[in-house]
Write a structure and sequence with these properties.
The protein is of the alpha+beta class. The chain has helices spanning about 15-30, 40-55, 105-115, 130-140; strands at about 5-10, 60-65, 65-75, 85-95, 120-125.
């Protein structure tokens, strides 16, 4: 039986390790045609993750004290009036050796609770279209397709 993950707000001392995780996440997403360059964006993401942490929007999962994953969330702020306050799940990542042990589900539940506490009425997220494992995970948790983004190379 897998140990129960502990989910908590990230501290400033977690940010560098989470930035390293984000690089692994971005590297993994390249298999699904992501344009994001992992290493080239590490420092920018480290700063972004530090801002999430300062706003209480960066969560970590620990298993037996070891960092197992993270999630980053925020309330959408824009210039348009909306019918619902939208919370955004920007990142959710679980280290491969901790997958299929409930860590992702625990992080997602904590992210949703955090957003609800901040006033969100709905949660939005993006997932690569070709990443069927991630899409299946979110569908299992009640998420449905909301918006479809399409692209086309202009070099073809």
């Amino acid at each position: 039986m897998a140990p129960t993950p502990t989910i908590e707000r990230a501290s400033g001392s977690d940010v560098d390790a989470i930035a390293d995780m984000w690089v692994r996440l971005a590297r993994d997403q390249r298999a699904y045609d992501s344009y994001v360059r992992p290493e080239a964006n590490r420092e920018a993401m480290r700063e972004s993750l530090a801002a999430y942490a300062a706003a209480d929007g960066l969560l970590v999962a620990r298993v037996d004290g070891e960092l197992a994953g993270f999630a980053s969330v925020s309330i959408e702020r824009g210039s348009l009036e909306l019918d619902a306050t939208r919370g955004t799940l920007s990142n959710l990542y679980v280290e491969p050796r901790f997958r299929d042990q409930g860590v992702g589900s625990a992080l997602l539940e904590a992210a949703e609770s955090t957003l609800e506490e901040k006033g969100a009425e709905v949660v939005v997220l993006e997932v690569m279209a070709a990443n069927e494992d991630a899409r299946r995970f979110y569908r299992r948790h009640g998420y449905d397709a909301f918006r479809v983004t399409m692209d086309r190379s202009l070099e073809e």
